[in-house]
What does this fold into?
Amino acid sequence: MDWLEECAEKLRQYVRNTTTVRAAAAYLLAALAVSLACTNLTANIMSLWINVMTERVPVPEGKIRLLKEIRQLCPWFYMTASIVVVARLFLEKKMKTALAEIGVAVKHMAAGDLSYEMAWQSRDEFGLLAKDVEQLRETIKKDKLNQWKMAEEQRRINAAFAHDIRTPLTVMNGYTEFLKKYVPTGKVTEQVILEKLDRISEQGERLLSFSKTMTTLQTMEKWEIHCRKMEAAEICKNIQDIAEGMKGEETRLSFQENVEGAVSVLVDLELILEVVGNVLQNAFRYARKEIEITVQYRKNRLTVYVRDDGDGFSEKALREAAAVYFSERKEGEAQDGHFGIGLSITKMLCEKHGGELKLFNSIEGGAVAAVSFQCTGVHR
It folds into this structure.
């Protein structure tokens, strides 16, 4: 009997994974087969009884007529009963269970529980619907996680901003108190007064720069992705153009493309150029003589590698370079208003485009910044 159980299991799997139309047709064929079998059996039994009744004396005409009517009506009765039973089984086995599972998943999502994963694994329309619901859950979960990350990032930005403006405010307050105390007494020379005012002016400009930094960060956070179809070669050409426009006369620039086939991709070119421009700005700032740019496209991901031949990232920079207000000045380099938001903006924009920012040191020497972007490619 094992082969019967095996056949029954294969039939259940076929019905589970086949389309709803085919499953309904299979159920109807089963109903037809059962009704025909029952009809044939009943008709044979009624004919046998009719033959037995006709041999009696006197002949029971009423009973014979009843048996003939049963024989005539049994096909309709069995067909109707089979369709009702099969329709109920179809709803229970094919639709109700799947819809109940999807309903449970939707209720969990509505309640804010995005950790519930559906166990429905059929390959029919309900399986596809369950897969779509799972993708929706993953998208919502990803959006929630991104919102949480953005809120945390904003909290860190606000904390860093509050911390960093404390120093210039303290300095300005100290110089102001000094002038208020000693200028009226005439004990301060005009040169000292001018020096103190210059210091106050410098701190005021620094506060203004902080304010512009916050405005820039908020603008980048509100950047909306607008993708359009572009050739990968055109994207590479735009990246090469901005690199050529930024390089100095003494800097050598090498450019490589590693694109698998001629493809068109859906990307936000303006965002990509903004990100690459920020990375190149850092590379040109620290490079000695050479910068290498490699553009790679694989599996719907566009990645741009920028390597310079400078000293590379320090251990601290590898950990914190993408943090807001992080800045490592070269030895002897004066404060230039660079508040370390370039890589923070780069990281933020990469994540908006489904990618990421990675920093590491090359085994050949120098720093490497890799920026990636999720994009849909169409191979031709």
Remarks:
- Confidence is low (pLDDT under 50) at residues 330-339.
